[in-house]
Input
Amino acid sequence: MFQVTQSQPRMLGCKAPEPLPFSVCGQLISPSGFLHHRRCFAETVLILVTKGTLYLNANGSPFALTAGTYILLPAGEEHFGFRSSEGSLSYLWAHFRTKQGFEPVHADDAKGYSYLLPETAFASPSGRTAQLFHQLMDLSLEEQLYTHSMSDYAVSLLLMELSQEYFRTCSISQSLPGPVVSAREWIKNHYFLPFDLPELAAAIGYSADYLSSLFKRSMGISIVRYTNRLRIKTAKTLLSNYGVSIKEAAFSCGFSDEKYFMKMFKEQEGISPTQYKHSFSRRNIN
Output
């Protein structure tokens, strides 16, 4: 199996008191074998992978970007694909300009930045980042009086959301034991795949019984319930925004059993997945 030894992502910051000037955005969809061209833009680029794995070398560091992962490519830094994708790949991309640019930031010098985020990380599974990205794409296609300014604010809001997600994660991590933080991070990166407790525990180097007990004591819920909450939160986004079937939503979020997914969904939300999906369909029609 091909493995990538990834570098520790840099922290990138930008001091921009005004909205970021938007340039262009779009979506790439490839059935198989996509290899990113060698590029070095005068604008900053944001990529959010929505399906498959994008193998990208950015500023000399290789990254295997899986679904739900973003990467920020500062202006003037070269990036290129170092391996072709296996199977289908899709990602959203946006170009924007900055007067001062994004620069590497040390944790001790983080004050005063309007935008501060890791150059690559897993976006929130709530789907808000993807929603903001799609909103930006919709705005970019319109030709109205305020569309250009709205696009500037939209791309700025997208970067603010990623920055806020980073600070939210840091705040939670500081108050939890290390094994619990590691477990949460691992779940966040693998919740869309079926897995069990022994697999999770082995992946982060702890015994299953110890990790299960510590997690429940620290979080107030079991690992299974925490994972299911995460999965159903993502399923709600898929059902309400992307029109997928109940079966597709279940399997896309790591449930191998559609009936179990429906049971857990109703237990958590009080209504069935079908009722939830139809409520959004009616709202959109009205």
Summary: Residues 178-285 form a domain with the Arc Repressor Mutant, subunit A fold (CATH 1.10.10.60). The radius of gyration is 20 Å. The longest strand covers residues 22-30. The chain has two domains: 11-174, 178-285.
